[in-house]
From TrEMBL:
This is Thioredoxin peroxidase. It comes from Haloferula chungangensis. InterPro entries: AhpC/TSA, Peroxiredoxin, Peroxiredoxin_AhpC-typ, Peroxiredoxin_C, Thioredoxin-like_sf, Thioredoxin_domain. The keyword Oxidoreductase applies. It holds the Pfam family 1-cysPrx_C.
Amino acid sequence: MSLLIGKKAPSFTAKAVQRETVIEGFSLDQYLGKKHVVFFFYPKDFTFVCPTELHRFQEELAEFEKRDVAVVGCSTDSEFSHWAWLNTPREKGGIQGVSYPLVADINKTISLAYDVLAGEETVDENGNFAVEGEMVAYRGLFLIDRDGIVRHQVVNDMPLGRSIRECLRVVDALQHFEQHGEVCPMDWQKGDKGMVADHDGVSDYLGGK
């Protein structure tokens, strides 16, 4: 698993679906210099854990927008599958009402670039290709700053849903550091004290509660 922390987020252009619209040339580059981005991968449309995550991101979308953060989802499904899922009511397993973009990584190049693609291609001595496991994305999540740098990443195995509270907490921690230059200790929450190293190398608590 590649560590992208401190590096430029891999750039891509792909089809995406947002509400009723298929976007032909979607790219995260549109947010450079403007917004932080939470870019998350999920395994499949029309599954079980995935809609719980997509609905929770929608339910908390106003909290991300208050922080000037764009939320973007991605899976290896096609734009047609995304569109159908977005038009399926929640009570029937769909994600109707989700309003943020869903990227279609049908060629799996984006999942590969972010190193969240499960499964593995193999070639035997006769040149025959085979695939071990499903070629779908793990539950990867990347927090990208306005300069396009990855500042946080977490990758869960497919059975393990993520925490929206932790995602927002890390957004708050990054923005606190950017605004105040103070680092955030273990279990830091918005409004808590930050820390700064003095000239003797000793960390002191500053501000907050």
